[in-house]
């Protein structure tokens, strides 16, 4: 299967644009892949063999929906969503534009300048996506009146309750709905090996580059580890251990730092 071209903007661009809104809104699509039917002529590429017991004959099955792990699934899911936006842009012009620009796969990160506009986005996005068999859930906002409207107008039992605390995940970044953003850092675990150091550095998820100078220091340490020729589970040297622990201690200062929207 072909992978297909890239249809959505980079994660960083979506997040940066989302942060410019006075009222921020987030949601995601329930079981996005399961909502997209594969063309009949392509279902043969998703055949599987199955029998409940060894005494029964093997039966052929075909998966008729998008399947996780197939190369073309991400492209087809996004293409279907964008085709829906194109088909309904006359009826829902604003929601159609949002669908094409403010989704990262199944995650919606959008916003507005007024409460009325935010509520209109909530209603129109639900209506538009319903026409394509999609359903939005996990709605959240930094505006209490918009949140209350979303809570009162829950669409059915499939929609999960709104977040009751202020901390929400937005495309992997911690977002405090009270207009600040916090950094989530990994906990220290023993023993400290090359595998552990690389794992901890990989967890410094920073798509907007808030802590880029700090991440660079961590990458220098990774270079030193490779030059030492250590195995994955070998304990690092005392010198590098001291350097790493000091780096970890300094991370605590960043964890307490909050970036304002």
UniProtKB/TrEMBL annotation:
Pfam families: Peptidase_A17, RVT_1. One of its GO terms (biological process) is DNA biosynthetic process. Residues 12-138 form the Reverse transcriptase domain. It comes from Trichoplusia ni (Cabbage looper). InterPro entries: DNA/RNA_pol_sf (IPR043502), Retrotrans_Pao (IPR008042), Rev_trsase/Diguanyl_cyclase (IPR043128), RT_dom (IPR000477). This is Uncharacterized protein LOC113507862. It comes from the Eukaryota.
């Amino acid at each position: 299967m072909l992978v297909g071209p890239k249809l959505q903007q980079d994660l960083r661009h979506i997040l940066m644009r989302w942060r410019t809104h006075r009222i921020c809104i987030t949601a995601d699509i329930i079981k996005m892949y399961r909502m997209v039917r594969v063309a009949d002529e392509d279902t043969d590429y998703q055949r599987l063999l199955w029998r409940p017991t060894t005494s029964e004959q093997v039966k052929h099955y075909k998966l008729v929906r998008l399947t996780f792990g197939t190369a073309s699934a991400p492209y087809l899911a996004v293409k279907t969503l964008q085709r829906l936006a194109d088909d309904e842009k006359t009826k829902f012009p604003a929601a159609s534009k949002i669908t094409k620009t403010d989704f990262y796969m199944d995650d919606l990160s959008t916003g507005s300048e007024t409460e009325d506009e935010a509520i209109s986005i909530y209603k129109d996005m639900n209506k538009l996506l319903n026409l394509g068999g999609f359903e939005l859930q996990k709605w959240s906002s930094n505006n209490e009146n918009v949140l209350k409207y979303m809570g009162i107008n829950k669409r059915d039992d499939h929609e999960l309750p709104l977040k009751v605390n202020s901390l929400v995940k937005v495309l992997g970044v911690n977002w405090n709905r009270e207009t600040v953003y916090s950094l989530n850092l990994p906990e220290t675990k023993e023993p400290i090996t090359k595998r552990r150091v690389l794992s901890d550095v990989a967890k410094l998820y920073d798509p907007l580059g808030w802590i880029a100078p700090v991440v660079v220091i961590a990458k220098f340490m990774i270079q030193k580890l490779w030059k030492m020729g250590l195995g994955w589970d070998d304990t690092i040297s005392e010198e590098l251990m001291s350097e790493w622990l000091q780096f970890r201690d300094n991370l605590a200062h960043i964890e307490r730092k909050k970036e304002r929207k």
